[in-house]
Amino acid sequence: MATPTTPTTTPAPQPTPAANLTIGNYNLLVNKKVCLMAQMELQIRLETPKANGTFIVQPSQTKPSGECLETKANLTLSFSQGFITLIFQKIDTEDTAYAESVSLSLTYPFSKTGPSHYVAKNSSLNLFAARIGYCYSSKKETLYMGQGLYLDFSQHRMQAFNISNGEFGD
Fold first, then answer.
1. Given a cut of 70, is residue 119 above it in pLDDT?
2. How far is CA 59 from CA 5, 23, 30, 33, 100, in A?
3. pTM score, whole prediction
4. Structural domains of the chain, with CATH
5. CB 51 within 8 A of CB 114
């Protein structure tokens, strides 16, 4: 006589425990010269009636990539759960550079029943503006990405274009 089998179920993915915010240093090089620098703590928050939670970007598990052109630069921070991309614009007539667009993609289970994949983009921005050759610096800022998603920047400095000796400007 055959032994009855017991069905097994795979448990739903659970969020990983929150880690501490850690400052990451992300540089882009073109022809062995730094063309964009960012130093920051990053986290993605979800606040909706169905789910709340925080995903902390871990610099040790994050790879920067992108490109710098004459008037545009993009920085993509990739990690196993997704990516964050910042697009910087240089306006020579105003002697200014700023982030004009931020997008993110994240696969992370903020709740047991809600979606686990999130995509958001915030365009037409004028974020982190600084004069060319200078850096933007702030202790904390939050950018609303839509659909209950927030991108929190802490302890951050950013500079795109005209970087001297691989160091932040004033």
1. yes
2. 46, 7, 21, 22, 23
3. 0.85
4. 24-160 (2.40.160.110)
5. yes
d(CA 112, CA 103): 25
DSSP 8-class letter at 60:
G
Evaluate whether 29 touches 35 at the Cβ level (below 8 Å).
yes
Question: Which amino acid type is present at position 38?
Answer: A
**Are 75 and 28 a contacting pair, CB within 8 Å?**
yes
What number of other Cβ atoms are within 10 A of residue 155's Cβ? Answer: 14
Tokens 């903020």 correspond to what residue? 110
Question: What pLDDT digit, counting tens, does each position of 95-110 carry?
Answer: 999 999 999 999 999 8
pLDDT in tens, 56-89: 999 999 999 999 999 999 999 999 999 999 999 9
At 76, list the tokens: 């993509």
Structure-block tokens of residue 13: 């993915």
